[in-house]
Amino acid sequence: MALLEVDNLRLYYSTSKGVVKAVDGVSFDLEEGETLALVGESGCGKSTIAKALIRLWERNVSSVDGEIRFEGRDVLHISDEEFRTQYRWKKIAWVPQASMNSLNPVLTIGEQMIEPLVIHHGVDKDKALMQAMDMLEAVGLPRDTVRRYPHQLSGGMKQRVAIAMALILMPKLVILDEPTSALDVITQANIMNLLKRLRREFKLTYIFITHDLALASELADSVAVMYAGKLVEWGSSDDMYVSPKHPYTVGLMGSVPTLRGEKKLTFMPGEVPSLINPPTGCHFYPRCPYFASRGELKGLCDRDEPPYIDVEHKGVRRHLVSCWLYK
Ligand SMILES: Nc1ncnc2c1ncn2[C@@H]1O[C@H](COP(=O)(O)OP(=O)(O)OP(=O)(O)O)[C@@H](O)[C@H]1O
């Protein structure tokens, strides 16, 4: 049984301009110990999936639908109380976007780290402080970091603190939303190495959200590409890197520079459509180079939503693509 199974997840926001279909029928699963990278341009719905998984969604969410099964149990439909006491942070943890900048400036690192342990889980204060120091050590920080204030730490140190805070209750699944985006390249590499080591040491399962395909393929076993609220392609990171199929994934890959610069960089014109009135059929067709050049696709891609097709793959994982070109 997979650790996590997301089945036809939909999450809509209500706004004065209409309903934003931020996540619209997304399904994927994750085995214990596996790392999945969720990739896509800004505004595709990646963070909304993360918030749905940890059930910390915005006030203007108008509907949430589908199933999120964790260890076989549908945790989307259990009570808030049960999710808060049994799952959030205990089994499923989240390192939110820009988390290193959301540390409380007037509390020491120790005070912020032990708060959830003491308040929500009734752990004795001294024991909680020991746990905090152990976890700081595990993420490569000195134990006396507990006495420091956020302004006394560098960006990389604060990001390590944010990771330590997520791990303090030893969760099974950790969702990392752009964990390295605000850091310089050297610090980014250090955090990536830390995540790899923690994964081995604590047998963690990660969902790693990023718009950086190079980072995704370095850390992840599988890569799922989102476009305008939908998953358009999902496969093992090798398959996705060597032989991307969806025209959107191909476009994203083409815009990633390589160190040796052996390939010509391409630019993908256009932008993610409004999720209030997304295009009918395939959401990508207005930007798709094949739709523009091949007459037989007219009346198909712009009318009917493509099904998921299992294309040729070499790894153990299926390689699914939602595109009429492969039907
Ligand atoms: N509270 C909200 N109310 C209305 N619309 C929202 C809300 N939060 C997000 N959205 C919209 O939902 C869509 C998906 O947003 P989301 O933040 O999940 O995307 P993302 O892929 O994580 O982007 P980014 O990388 O910029 O965080 C976007 O169109 C966004 O504008």
TrEMBL record:
Subcellular location(s) per record = Cell membrane
Coarse class of the primary localization is membrane
Q: Which residues form the ABC transporter domain?
A: 4-253
Q: Which GO terms describe its molecular function?
A: ATP binding; ATP hydrolysis activity
User: Which InterPro entries does the entry link to?
Assistant: AAA+_ATPase (IPR003593), ABC_Ni/Peptide_Import (IPR050388), ABC_transporter-like_ATP-bd (IPR003439), ABC_transporter-like_CS (IPR017871), Oligopep_ABC_C (IPR013563), P-loop_NTPase (IPR027417)
Q: How does it sit in the membrane?
A: Peripheral membrane protein
- Give an example GO cellular component term for this record: plasma membrane
Q: Which UniProt keywords apply?
A: ATP-binding, Cell inner membrane, Cell membrane, Membrane, Nucleotide-binding, Translocase, Transport
GO terms classed as biological process: peptide transport
Q: NCBIfam families annotated for this entry?
A: oligo_HPY (TIGR01727)
Protein name (record): Dipeptide/oligopeptide/nickel ABC transporter ATP-binding protein
Q: What is the lineage of its organism?
A: Archaea, Thermoproteota, Thermoprotei, Thermoproteales, Thermoproteaceae
